[in-house]
Amino acid sequence: MWNKESRYVPLPQFKDWGYLTALIRCDREYFDGEKHVDGVQPCMPSSEIDKRVAALIEKMSDRKTEQQAFTDLESLGCPAVPAIIERMDDRRKLPDPRISLQNKSPDAFEGLRHYGPEKVVDALAAILNQITGKDFGFISSGATDTERDKAVGGWRDFLYKTDAAKLCEGG
């Protein structure tokens, strides 16, 4: 949950219920059709985003749904970054160690970036890099457990020390 200082705090530590009420009011504008956006509404309650992220991460463990889960997770965009980071230390082996992401760099010489993630955490690092433009250790094509620990720690530090509005400035 984001507090009014634009900092992420776990729900048990969240104390500003007036702010939560404002988020719900904003959310209703989107669900009632007053405003339209693709993907996740920018004011969707974090619990709904967390449920979607959790379900998509589960789909990553099935060869039949893995690639679509990558695409769907990326499409959730910046609102999903906190939930992805919170769940990213998942060391399950991926059934198909391939992920391709659109290359958004203005200097790109090819349309897609290809990686060979071995574990769920590796794929989530690639997706987070795609959404935020940040990198806390290259594990997107597999890594040692020590390198994964360092990357996960870097992402968590980034989440807790970065204002919500700045999470995706580089993406």
Give the termini separation: 21 Å
Name the overall outline.
globular
Rg to the nearest angstrom?
16 Å
Structural class: mainly alpha
For the biggest sheet, the summary is: 2 strands, antiparallel
The SSE order reads HHHHEEHH
The number of distinct helices, counting runs of at least 4 residues, comes to 6
Strand content: under 5%
Contiguous low-pLDDT stretches (5 residues minimum) are 35-41
Helix content: 40-55%
> What strand order characterises the main sheet?
1-2
Number of strands: 2
Average pLDDT, rounded to a whole number, is 80
Could you characterize the architecture of this molecule?
By secondary structure, the chain is mainly alpha-helical. Helix content is 45%, strand content 5%. The chain has six helices and two strands; from the N terminus they run H-H-H-H-E-E-H-H. A two-stranded antiparallel ribbon has the order 1-2. Helix 2 (46-59) packs antiparallel against helix 3, helix 2 crosses helix 4 (81-87) and helix 4 packs antiparallel against helix 6 (145-161). The longest helix has 17 residues, at 145-161. The protein is globular and about 35 Å long.
